[in-house]
Amino acid sequence: MVNNTKLHEEKVFKDPVHRYIHVRDSLIWDLIGTKEFQRLRRIRQLGTTYLTFHGAEHSRFSHSLGVYEIVRRIIGNFEGFPGWNEEERLLSLSAALLHDVGHGPFSHTFEKVFHLDHEDFTRQIILGDTEVNAVLSKVKSDFPQKISDIIAKTYENKLIVSLISSQIDADRMDYLLRDAYFTGVSYGQFDIERILRVMRPWEEQVVIKSSGMHAVEDYIMSRYQMYWQVYFHPVSRSAEVILRKILHRVKFLAESGYSFKKKTDAFNSFFYGNVGLREYLKLDESIMLYYFQAWQEEPDPILSDLCNRFINRKLFKYMEFNPMNVKEWLALHEAFENEGIDPDYYLVLDSSSDLPYDFYRPGEEEERIPIYLLKPNGERRELSRESEVVEAISGKKRTDHKLYFPMDLIEDLSSTSTAKQLIVDLLKRGGI
Amino acid sequence: MVNNTKLHEEKVFKDPVHRYIHVRDSLIWDLIGTKEFQRLRRIRQLGTTYLTFHGAEHSRFSHSLGVYEIVRRIIGNFEGFPGWNEEERLLSLSAALLHDVGHGPFSHTFEKVFHLDHEDFTRQIILGDTEVNAVLSKVKSDFPQKISDIIAKTYENKLIVSLISSQIDADRMDYLLRDAYFTGVSYGQFDIERILRVMRPWEEQVVIKSSGMHAVEDYIMSRYQMYWQVYFHPVSRSAEVILRKILHRVKFLAESGYSFKKKTDAFNSFFYGNVGLREYLKLDESIMLYYFQAWQEEPDPILSDLCNRFINRKLFKYMEFNPMNVKEWLALHEAFENEGIDPDYYLVLDSSSDLPYDFYRPGEEEERIPIYLLKPNGERRELSRESEVVEAISGKKRTDHKLYFPMDLIEDLSSTSTAKQLIVDLLKRGGI
Amino acid sequence: MVNNTKLHEEKVFKDPVHRYIHVRDSLIWDLIGTKEFQRLRRIRQLGTTYLTFHGAEHSRFSHSLGVYEIVRRIIGNFEGFPGWNEEERLLSLSAALLHDVGHGPFSHTFEKVFHLDHEDFTRQIILGDTEVNAVLSKVKSDFPQKISDIIAKTYENKLIVSLISSQIDADRMDYLLRDAYFTGVSYGQFDIERILRVMRPWEEQVVIKSSGMHAVEDYIMSRYQMYWQVYFHPVSRSAEVILRKILHRVKFLAESGYSFKKKTDAFNSFFYGNVGLREYLKLDESIMLYYFQAWQEEPDPILSDLCNRFINRKLFKYMEFNPMNVKEWLALHEAFENEGIDPDYYLVLDSSSDLPYDFYRPGEEEERIPIYLLKPNGERRELSRESEVVEAISGKKRTDHKLYFPMDLIEDLSSTSTAKQLIVDLLKRGGI
Amino acid sequence: MVNNTKLHEEKVFKDPVHRYIHVRDSLIWDLIGTKEFQRLRRIRQLGTTYLTFHGAEHSRFSHSLGVYEIVRRIIGNFEGFPGWNEEERLLSLSAALLHDVGHGPFSHTFEKVFHLDHEDFTRQIILGDTEVNAVLSKVKSDFPQKISDIIAKTYENKLIVSLISSQIDADRMDYLLRDAYFTGVSYGQFDIERILRVMRPWEEQVVIKSSGMHAVEDYIMSRYQMYWQVYFHPVSRSAEVILRKILHRVKFLAESGYSFKKKTDAFNSFFYGNVGLREYLKLDESIMLYYFQAWQEEPDPILSDLCNRFINRKLFKYMEFNPMNVKEWLALHEAFENEGIDPDYYLVLDSSSDLPYDFYRPGEEEERIPIYLLKPNGERRELSRESEVVEAISGKKRTDHKLYFPMDLIEDLSSTSTAKQLIVDLLKRGGI
Question: Which PROSITE patterns match (chains A, B, C, D) (predicted)?
Answer without folding.
Answer: HD
